[in-house]
Design a protein that fits this description.
- The protein has about 130 residues and is mainly α.
- The chain has eight helices and no strands.
- Helix 2 crosses helix 4 and helix 4 packs antiparallel against helix 7.
- The longest helix is centred in the middle third of the chain and has 21 residues.
- About 5% of the residues are buried.
């Protein structure tokens, strides 16, 4: 449901794609800090009665933003890439469906987090080492 909702909202996916190139490379420190603090708080704004998100929730949200932002331009190619897909079957085979890619990545991320919980402290240690 998340993936298909995002696919229907190019007005959201386009800025997510542009964010890393623009924010990470072409912004002032003050602008980056404002954005990062606002982004860090947005999951908790959904409901005053909702508990704060867990670390795992944050990791799922980060994976969602990363995969949606980076896969969008490949799934919705510009003119030159679309023409390349039409001209060359080998290149066309590299095309990925946005909804499928986002859904699969989230499934793997959530599955990995759940497997880490099942493994007990080993999962927590593994996650801590990646940060």
């Amino acid at each position: 449901m998340i993936a298909s909702t995002l696919a229907a909202l190019p007005v959201l996916c386009d800025p997510m794609h542009a964010e890393s190139g623009m924010l990470e490379r072409n912004a002032s420190v003050e602008a980056v800090l404002r954005h990062m603090h606002a982004t860090d708080r947005w999951p908790t704004r959904s409901s005053a009665s909702s508990p704060p998100p867990s670390q795992d929730t944050g990791e799922v949200i980060a994976a969602l933003l990363l995969v949606a932002g980076t896969s969008w331009p490949y799934a919705e190619p510009g003119e030159a890439l679309a023409a390349a897909y039409k001209r060359d079957a080998t290149v066309a085979a590299m095309h990925r469906d946005f909804t499928t890619l986002v859904q699969r990545t989230l499934t793997l991320t959530i599955g990995g987090l759940l497997a880490g919980e099942d493994a007990g402290s080993a999962g927590a240690v593994g996650r801590a080492q990646t940060h």
